């Protein structure tokens, strides 16, 4: 659902895909090839939210801020299932892990990786290419070339997903039995540990 709020209508590039069960309202600008999953809430009611090209905001994420603030998710930011971004700026090609919480005025540098379930407290400034984990979160190491290559490959899959959703996603009635010719799915992306073993 896309909602106008106080005269602000979201701007969404036609190549992006917003699931019908997501909610986008108010002062929101969404670039090219962005995927917004079901259950995501992107509330530009109190401030501006800019989601640059190639980002993905997965199922049940929340993006919001305090009144009068603006926030940016830079190109290629990858926001994992259930994460909350509240008034933070997310650098280019970052990975925010599942159910992480990033609070107000956080500046997450480019190509950072935030571990699942991490809590980044307000006003924290994180330099480029750092791995951040824990509650409260701390920087534990630099992000290696191998790690960022793995992340970038995963994000590329999400950058293809909007076009695939536009082409093939449709509401249907369920089948009542498994068809004999049911297709198989290829394992075309590996976990980081599997990626390292290649």
TrEMBL record:
* Superkingdom, natural source: Bacteria
InterPro entries per the UniProt record, alphabetical: Hexapep, Transf_Hexapept/Carb_Anhydrase, Trimer_LpxA-like_sf
Entry-linked Pfam families: Hexapep
The record's annotation in PANTHER family points to: DYNACTIN SUBUNIT P25, GAMMA CARBONIC ANHYDRASE-LIKE 1, MITOCHONDRIAL-RELATED
Can you say what this protein is called?
Carbonic anhydrase
């Amino acid at each position: 659902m896309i909602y106008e709020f106080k005269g602000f209508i979201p701007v969404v590039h036609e190549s992006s895909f917003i699931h019908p069960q997501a909610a986008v309202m108010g002062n929101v600008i969404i670039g090219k090839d962005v995927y917004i999953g079901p259950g995501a809430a992107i509330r530009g009611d109190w401030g501006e939210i800019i989601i640059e090209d190639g980002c993905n905001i997965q199922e049940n994420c929340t993006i919001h801020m305090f009144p009068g603030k603006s926030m940016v998710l830079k190109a290629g930011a990858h926001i994992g299932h259930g994460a909350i971004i509240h008034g933070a700026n997310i650098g280019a090609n970052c990975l925010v892990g599942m159910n992480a919480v990033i609070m107000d005025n956080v500046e997450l540098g480019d190509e950072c990786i935030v571990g699942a379930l991490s809590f980044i407290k307000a006003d924290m400034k994180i330099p480029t290419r750092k791995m951040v984990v824990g509650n409260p979160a701390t920087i534990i190491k630099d992000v290696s070339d191998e790690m960022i290559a793995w992340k970038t490959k995963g994000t590329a899959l999400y950058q293809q997903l909007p076009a695939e959703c536009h082409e093939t996603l449709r509401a249907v009635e369920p089948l009542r039995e498994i068809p004999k010719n049911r297709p198989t799915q290829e394992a075309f992306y590996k976990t980081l540990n599997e990626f390292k073993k290649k």
